[in-house]
Design a protein that fits this description.
Helix content is 30%, strand content 21%. It has 463 residues and is an alpha/beta fold. Helix 8 packs across helix 12. The longest helix is centred in the last third of the chain and has 18 residues.
């Protein structure tokens, strides 16, 4: 028995983690000891004790105001779209912008047992999410005459396969120096009754990714923050892998962010239904924050203004702009971002080493969310976008009510059809169309490439 390990674990009532020590070989013991050494058991104990603490979201929402926003109806906006375009374009041309892509999730809900970024989403081309995103970045870099680095965050479940996939495809044309893949951290799952860390198997602790808020620590640990400073990157465009419509490095969005001298800006859509499953952005005591849809009561969600519009209208789509300064400051903060708790079903081994597959939630997982940066950000703002032009999340397997592969592909086809028809082309209703970002990045570039009167009668990929 490893006496030092046992002493540490006994202090925190976690000595059960060595229950199978005598049956492990030397390699397994070394692995388990390393896993134990990475856990802050004092933090786990504090989090478990705080699990019952409840934020009074009703009080927060009752005291809230609409967030400072740039709306699609620009009449009341402080800056015009043209001003924003010009400011964002200048920052891009100056090489001050980098990209963070969060890609730690697997496609389990899609019936796809691989990193979600490898999912074939192109409605005509069959291109993957990863390829579409990288091609948008390359097209933007070409347009602005710069190199735009990609900082790609994986999870332990997706890291190795993602690295192999990018290597296999030559990084889809992205220069090696412009791609940095880093892995987010993990947190152990604990028994919801005792707070004891669960064992996935006798030599492995049950862990899960620490949430997209774990990005702060991962950026610092990987050296990515240093790389940003070396390159002169001052601001970052952030998005998640499951949205193929995202307008990567949108100069207008970045322009509003920069003109507002904001440390964190967020794209939002106007909620169509009070119960839309989106984070709700509100302002409380002069600071922005997100209230998750599950924490918002139906009556507050449904409250309306005198004109009939929703009182809480801004739904977050997980697309942000950050200053590098706030990431550095918060990554170095002892407090960091708060942890959130989730009751989950976690498979584990019991005291006899038998595998247990629970039918009901049995454990607590801890994770951090990147939107919790909002209250710490100076001059935080939201920017409303048209979901038809920038939001098509791929979440669910066929047969679900929304966010399926078919629904996302339909939105992609509809967008590219609009671009072609605005350029004077005639597209048959039965003809699915897809535009490669390297051929045209937007409607204006499509208009410069397509001859008016062009007819599209069958499926076509413009590349």
């Amino acid at each position: 028995m490893n006496e030092q390990l046992l002493h540490t674990l006994t202090e925190h009532n976690q000595q059960h983690l060595l229950r199978f020590w005598d049956s492990l070989d030397a390699t397994q013991r070394a692995s388990l000891a390393a896993q134990i050494g990475q856990i802050d058991f004092g933090l786990i104990a504090r989090l478990f004790r705080a699990r019952g603490d409840q934020t009074n979201f009703r009080d927060l929402v009752e005291r809230s105001q609409p967030p400072p926003a740039f709306r699609l109806d620009t009449a009341q906006n402080r800056f015009t779209p043209q001003q924003a375009q010009e400011r964002g374009t200048a920052a891009l041309r100056a090489g001050q912008i980098g990209v963070i892509l969060v890609a730690g999730g697997q496609g389990t809900r899609l019936g796809f047992d691989h990193p979600k970024g490898m999912f074939l989403i192109g409605p005509v081309s069959g291109r993957t999410l990863f390829q579409i995103h990288v091609e948008k970045m390359l097209a933007a870099a070409r347009r602005y005459g710069v190199r735009i680095p990609l900082y790609l965050m994986t999870s332990p479940a997706t890291h190795d396969e993602t690295l192999a996939f990018f290597a296999q495809h030559g990084r889809f044309g992205l220069p090696a120096d412009d791609l940095q893949v880093f892995c987010q951290g993990t947190m152990p799952a604990v028994d919801e009754q005792t707070g004891q860390v669960l064992l996935e198997r006798p030599d492995r602790i049950a862990t899960s990714p620490d949430g997209h808020g774990g990005m702060l620590a991962a950026l610092r640990r990987s050296g990515a923050l240093e790389d940003m400073r070396r390159r002169g990157i001052e601001h970052l465009f952030y998005f998640q892998v499951d949205n193929p419509l995202v307008d990567i490095c949108s100069p207008e969005f970045l322009g509003y962010h920069l003109l507002s001298e904001s440390e964190m800006s967020s794209q939002v859509v106007a909620k169509r239904d009070p119960l839309d499953r989106l984070g709700n952005v509100i302002q409380v005591d002069g600071r922005l924050m997100v209230v998750e849809y599950s924490d918002l009561s139906d009556d507050l969600a449904g409250r309306r203004n005198a004109d009939g519009s929703l009182w809480i209208w801004a739904g977050s789509i997980a697309v942000h702009a950050f200053s590098v300064a706030i990431l550095e400051r918060m990554a170095g903060s002892s407090a960091g971002l708060p942890f959130h708790f989730a009751r989950k079903k976690v498979a584990h081994v019991d005291e006899r080493g038998n595998r247990v597959e629970p039918k009901e939630p049995n454990a607590i997982k801890f994770e951090r969310f990147i939107f919790d940066l909002m209250p710490a950000a100076a001059n935080a703002i939201v920017v409303e976008i048209d979901p038809a032009e920038g939001f098509a999340p791929l979440k669910n397997a066929p047969g679900a009510a929304a966010d399926t592969c078919a629904a996302v592909q339909a939105q992609m086809i509809a967008q590219h059809r609009r671009w072609l028809e605005a350029a004077g082309a005639a597209v048959a209703e039965s003809a699915p169309v897809e535009i490669c970002p390297l051929w045209a990045l937007d409607a204006a570039e499509t208009a410069a490439k397509i001859a008016p009167g062009t007819r599209v009668e069958k499926a076509r990929f413009f590349a």
